[in-house]
Design brief:
By secondary structure, this protein is an all-beta fold. The protein is built from no helices and 14 strands. It has a 5-stranded mixed sheet with strand order 1-9-6-3-4, with no helix packed on it. Strands 10, 11, 12, 13 and 14 form a 5-stranded antiparallel sheet that branches.
């Protein structure tokens, strides 16, 4: 069996709704199934930060989307984009969930001094294809969670592109180098705790 993640006794449930907040509800239950926190009747495009102080024990978080398309869905850009995370009170991310989760997020964890395993943060890594490229390149990102800075620099260190985006630990980004001169470029992605880079050839 897989041991649950162990989190501090005080955590922050941090999430942002999209354009259809009426589809969403949040419920947190203890090991007996009793509801210890819930929230519905959300506002659109609104960030929520709920600080919870828990007793030592086991808990399950459920975030529901009755529209079955999560907080972000590539086929429905009109719905907007949201996210769902668990954070420490210091602001660092404990767990970031893929916003394209379909109907629900269900996540169990323990709090306090119980037997378990601290969730490991995977090493940051990037992979790109096609490489060399004549224009668009897809970059797979592993191990970087939360708000990240994405930069493309030429070999003289000149900034060619820059954007910020929320990452979830297993993302695919599309970068367009069609307007850039042929040559060697560095793709650098910097998160709160980790950084990774790779080189891409434009030809």
């Amino acid at each position: 069996f897989e041991l649950p993640a162990v989190y501090p006794e005080t955590i922050v449930v941090n999430y942002k709704t999209n354009n259809f907040p009426g589809e969403n509800s949040l419920t947190i239950r203890d090991v007996y199934g009793s509801v210890i926190f819930d929230r519905s009747n959300h506002a659109a495009n609104t960030i929520y930060n709920d600080t919870l102080t828990l007793f030592a024990g086991c808990y399950t978080v459920e975030f529901l989307d009755t529209g079955n398309d999560g907080l972000s869905y590539w086929a429905d850009p009109g719905a907007g984009n949201g996210y769902f995370r668990l954070r420490r009170t210091t602001g660092s991310i404990l767990k970031s969930f893929d916003p394209e989760f379909g109907r629900s997020i269900t996540w169990s964890f323990t709090s306090g001094a119980l037997v378990g395993v601290d969730e490991l943060v995977p090493a940051a890594a990037l992979e790109a294809w096609p490489n060399p490229t004549s224009g668009e390149v897809t970059v797979a990102v592993q191990g970087i969670l939360g708000d990240a800075l994405i930069e493309v620099l030429d070999m003289r260190g000149t900034l060619v592109q820059r954007q910020q985006r929320a990452l979830h630990g297993g993302d695919r980004l599309t970068l367009d180098l069609a307007g850039a001169a042929d040559g060697l470029y560095e793709v650098r992605i910097t998160g709160a705790d980790q950084q990774a880079n790779l080189r891409v050839v434009k030809q």
